[in-house]
Design goal:
By secondary structure, this protein is mainly alpha-helical. It has 14 helices and no strands.
């Protein structure tokens, strides 16, 4: 068995064990330890990616075409288990570049939404936050706390954002934006709450128990391009993220969605030149 197939088999075996444990003990996803939650999240994404490849292979002789596609387009048609270490880093940067293209639009949408806020003080704080990020400044966590309640309802709650913003944040979350707006909002809510549950489990586990790869993956999932960051830089960013996450209510989960942009867009600009 090749190393790639062995990794895939081990992942499948581990996921099956987690699923059996959940069934035997009546556990829900958000009751699992951090690493088990993360394993299920990642494996689900792997399965979703491979479904089109399986469907393409069904017609007679189509498997030859699929093999060619896998060879010439490994990023699109191969699971991560079959990527080299170099390919994993390269493809992560590629995917992040697609996501980061939506960041300026997300910030512009935030500034536009501020015009609908009736409380003058909160409106100014939100505008100040958006303008700072738009101007290339990395915000402080305290600036996000002060406007958190604006993300519960109109106009910034996940179920209240307009269709354009729902499409933009779907791109940020690596979700297809080509769906009806009510489905986009539902999927955004589901994926943000998944990250929130991961944050809660991570807070219990403790950041010090994560490996360097786990730190990088955790940051990447939350919007930060962590490929070239050191473990200490990833840990610094992730600590602040979890600090924000654990202080928010479920109804303010939209701030977590926006923070994937607000806390990531200018993070590299804030670092000393030698740390980049």
């Amino acid at each position: 068995m090749s190393p790639s197939f062995r990794l895939l088999y081990l992942d499948f075996k581990e996921v099956s064990g987690i699923k059996h444990k959940m069934a035997d003990k009546g556990l829900k996803y958000n009751q699992l330890p951090y690493r088990e939650m993360e394993k299920l999240r990642q494996f689900r994404r792997d399965v979703i990616k491979v479904i089109p490849v399986v469907l393409l292979s069904i017609p007679p002789f189509a498997n030859y075409i699929v093999f060619l596609l896998m060879y010439f387009f490994p990023r699109q048609f191969l699971m991560r288990h079959f990527w080299t270490r170099e390919q994993q880093q390269e493809y992560k940067e590629t995917y992040h570049s697609f996501r980061a293209q939506a960041y300026p639009e997300a910030v512009s949408g935030l500034i536009k939404a501020a015009s609908k806020v009736k409380d003058k003080r909160l409106k100014n704080q939100l505008l100040n936050l958006g303008n700072k990020v738009q101007g290339g400044i990395h915000p402080e966590i305290s600036q996000l706390y002060t406007v958190a309640k604006l993300f519960s309802g109109q106009p910034l709650g996940i179920r209240r954002i307009d269709t354009r913003q729902a499409e933009i944040f779907s791109r940020v979350m690596f979700l297809t934006p080509h769906m009806p707006s009510f489905i986009l909002r539902r999927r955004l809510w589901s994926h943000v709450m998944e990250i929130r549950h991961l944050d809660q489990a991570l807070n219990i586990l403790g950041m010090q128990h994560l490996s360097e790869d786990e730190l990088r993956t955790a940051c990447y999932v939350r919007g930060l391009n962590s490929v070239h960051l050191s473990a200490s830089q990833c840990k610094e960013w992730l600590i602040k993220w979890v600090q924000l996450s654990k202080r928010l209510k479920d109804s303010e989960a939209s701030l977590m969605l926006h923070s994937m942009v607000l806390l990531s867009a200018n993070y590299l600009k804030k670092l000393p030149e030698k740390s980049k």
